[in-house]
Amino acid sequence: MEKLVHDSIEDYVKSLTPAQSARIKEIIDFLGALFPDADQKISYNMPSFHLNGPLVYVAAYKNHIGFYPTPGPINAFKDELVDYKTSKGAIQFPINKPFPFELIESMLEFRKKELIHKKKK
Q1: Chain segment 58-96, per-residue pLDDT in tens
Q2: Phi and psi based region of residue 56 (left: phi greater than 0; alpha: psi -120 to 50; beta: remaining)
């Protein structure tokens, strides 16, 4: 089976089911409004946002939206993430539940600070 490669975020969204498409657009629109200066592109075949480096990647799956802010924010906000399935670099947000937008914003502000600190080194 040939792997589907996406040329743009729009192309990625079009490849999804209507339910997946609606959910991924919701998070992409939120991230775009939150970080209007971020470079939005396909990276690792997923929609991603870059600001002084990789801020976050997102991907749609059958039952969840994968959210990949790198390990730092996940570790820093582990107590707030107890209701979600997580791994070292990923969070699974159920496709049928509202996104925790305030938590997402806090994690990504943390990530943004990590990237600024890394750039200064």
Answers
A1: 999 999 999 999 999 999 999 999 999 999 999 999 999
A2: beta
> At 121, which amino acid appears?
K
DSSP code for 60: E
Helix (H) or strand (E) holding 24: helix 18-34
Question: Domains in the chain, ordered, with CATH?
Answer: 9-120 (3.90.1150.200)
* Selection from 71, 65, 66 nearest residue 110 by Cα: 71
Other residues' Cβ atoms within 10 Å of the Cβ of residue 46: 18
Distances (CA, A) of 10 to 20, 29, 48, 83, 121: 13, 12, 12, 30, 35
* pLDDT attached to residue 6: 87
